[in-house]
Each structure stands twice: as structure tokens, then as C-alpha cells.
């Protein structure tokens, strides 16, 4: 799920990984989400960007204040997508897990939502956050004891602190 969220352009030089259908097919293949190469379209890439951005908004809400209207729109977008991407419960003698009820592009998107549901079920959902450093905005797992982490690394925290310091110096 974090790999899906971390596909956007960043100020650190990360390219857009869902730029078109070909790029999305490549990402699906790299993450063992089987789709037929000719099946993925540019509109699927746009749909992936929308799904990713909605998930990113929720992860931002775990780390910082987010505009409530933006958060509500992201939640609605995810709910709407989830309704068209059914999951089934696979049960065996050892465990149970959510699995896409469809194959292809919809199945790949459903697998991402299954990962979200699994993360929630394990109690780790609120520990998934987006780095508060604007050029970075990388999704990360907050491993702090009190779940108060706001940055993906100490480097990002230092960069934001240094920018604030320089801004205060300029304003004097």
C-alpha cells in the first residue's frame, strides 16, 4: 500500500510512476499484480492517481491537520471506488485474508484496498503517515512509541526546521 502511495512526483526527484497506461502496467508488474499489458489504459492511470491521492490525503491526516473538506472528498472517493472493487474473504485452517473478487486492473486496485483493510485490522493504519516535509511527502510507517512522528526521516525533519529558521531570519 505504501508502495502505491509513494508513486507521485516529489521534490526529491522521484518521477510520476502513474503517468500513463504503460507506466501503470510496469508498476503492476513490479508489484506482482497481474494484468494483461494491453488491458491498462491511460484512463486507468488517471484512476490510479486519484486513488493514490485520496489515500495520501488520509495518511496526511494521520500526521498533520488536513482541510476537512479535502479529507471528506478523499474519503468519499475511496468509498466510491471500494464499492466497485469487491473483495472476498479467503479462509483456510491457518488464517483468513481479503482477496480481490476480480482480476485485471480492477483486481489490482482491489488488492491495494485489501492491503488498507489488512493494515487497519492489524491496528497499524494510523501509524501510516505522509512526511510533513513538503518536497518529500513520502508515505512511511511511524515507529515512534507515542505515534507522534511527522517525518519519514530525521533528514526531512531537519530540512523543515532549517527552512523555518531561514524564513525567520529573512523576516527580521
UniProtKB/TrEMBL annotation:
It holds the Pfam family ABATE. Residues 127-168 form the Zinc finger CGNR domain. InterPro entries: ABATE (IPR010852), ABATE_dom_sf (IPR023286), Znf_CGNR (IPR021005). This is CGNR zinc finger domain-containing protein.
Amino acid at each position: 500500500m505504501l508502495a502505491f502511495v509513494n508513486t507521485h512526483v516529489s521534490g526529491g526527484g522521484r518521477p510520476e510512476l502513474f503517468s500513463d497506461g504503460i507506466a501503470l502496467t510496469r508498476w503492476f508488474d513490479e508489484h506482482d499484480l497481474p494484468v494483461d499489458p494491453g488491458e491498462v489504459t491511460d484512463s486507468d492511470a488517471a484512476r490510479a492517481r486519484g486513488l493514490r491521492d485520496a489515500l495520501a490525503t488520509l495518511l496526511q491526516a494521520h500526521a498533520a491537520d488536513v482541510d476537512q473538506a479535502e479529507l471528506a472528498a478523499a474519503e468519499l472517493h475511496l468509498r466510491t471506488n471500494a464499492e466497485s472493487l469487491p473483495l472476498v474473504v479467503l479462509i483456510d485452517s491457518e488464517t483468513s485474508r481479503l482477496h480481490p473478487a476480480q482480476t485485471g486492473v480492477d483486481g489490482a486496485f482491489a488488492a491495494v484496498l485489501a492491503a488498507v483493510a489488512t493494515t487497519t485490522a492489524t491496528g497499524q493504519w494510523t501509524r501510516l503517515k505522509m512526511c510533513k516535509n513538503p518536497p518529500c511527502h513520502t508515505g512511511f510507517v511511524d515507529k515512534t512509541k507515542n505515534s507522534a512522528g511527522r517525518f519519514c526521516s530525521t533528514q526531512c525533519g531537519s530540512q523543515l526546521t532549517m527552512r523555518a529558521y531561514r524564513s525567520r531570519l529573512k523576516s527580521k
